[in-house]
Amino acid sequence: MTFFDPQLFRQQFPLLVDNDKSNFEKSDSNTGLIYFDNAATTQKPKQVIDSQQGYYQELNANVHRASHQLSTKATIAFENARALTQKFINAQHINQIIWSKGATESINIITHSLARNTLKQGDEIVLCVSEHHANIVPWQIVAEQTGAIIKVLPINALGYLDVNQLDKVITEKTKFVACAHISNVIGKINPISLIIEKAKSVGAISVIDGAQAVAHVNIDVQALDCDFYVFSAHKMYGPTGVGVLYGKQALLESMSPYQGGGEMIKTVSFINGVTYNTLPFKLEAGTPNIAGVVTFAESIKFLSPLLTSVDNNYALYEKSLIDYCYQALSKIPQVTFIVEGAPDIPVFAFTVVGHHNQDLAIALDAHGIAIRSGHHCAMPLMETLSLRGCLRVSLAAYNTRAEVDYFIDCLQSLINDNHTMDNNIENNIVLL
Ligand code: PMP
């Protein structure tokens, strides 16, 4: 697809088409699916699904190693995916794209292979309070190992990282600043350019977690001038088990191997020891997820034209969904958003006065509506907002106003139904 048409776009997703609620009798409310859990993972378009099967049927061989033609073909497809990824985020060189299992592993590579080697007692790592655990726990581990200290940037009432606090929190002691481009709960685009600039001004390394941004925002790592940018394929209509670590060349060069094994070495000898391969292979030990990487190329081909199209229709459609859903939720008096103002991507986090989050999520599921409840891997954010959890509704560009209407009707009637809900319960019970 090179242009965006909401209906045509939706038609590309077999799981949605096969389970479209409008295909079923209205009287049987639990048939069909409304998938509103896109921040967790998106559905996959047919060309991505077909690509996976096509790879195994036509190309399957190990990459980089053999001298036979099939391996050469697989290697070309695998490295073409790297080139597409380089173009997708506008990295300068192809060897700045390192494959990982996902954003989580990409961050762990940075903490394990760089931060662990460079941090000293009393050095500071700055994180935002709304980070996903994937961008907290690896830093906590490395802080424990090195004696470094974690400092936390707060958010403002709107849920954006509070730039007024930058000068106070990021200082000469700061060695790493790691923050999400967009929080997976709040859905607001953080002012990362300011953060990257501030990190640079004190000589700190900037790490941007783009897991929630890549499906919605066109990324240009050279324009951002961040040191690292990480993301997962499965949140941008691609396969699970594939992630990207982008890094500035000199930093990647300076990193020690993450894992040892095949592919990441130049020479191995019991007499002379080991010498390592060049980038990107030095950081990619063992047989990679070849089918996943090749399939990921299809999701880039699918998404990239929509993110960069001059008509901007993909972004405009998402914006119309945001406005529509935000207004509809705002009209329900019992709905309390966890931060003020409409989100920048279609992710809505809220609680419902007098109702358990999990009860509502389960009741909605019985109507065929998939949403999420809990802490969303952002326990420090919940702690800060004095919440023990919340509901999260996350849409993608294949969702429709009709689906939002159906969801709002169901939510409203569940709220109104005092027989099935216990209104005396404590709100926001912890749900793991
Ligand atoms: N960061 C953010 C903001 C996320 O939303 C997620 C996934 N929920 C991750 C990191 C981790 O991604 P993955 O589980 O694909 O490694």
Automatic annotation (TrEMBL):
Stretches that traverse the bilayer: none
Source superkingdom: Bacteria
Domain Aminotransferase class V: 34-407
Keyword Glycoprotein applies: no
E.C. numbers: 2.8.1.7
The keyword Transferase is assigned to this record: yes
Family membership: Belongs to the class-V pyridoxal-phosphate-dependent aminotransferase family. Csd subfamily.
Protein name (record): cysteine desulfurase
Segment of the intact protein contained: 1 to 432 of 571
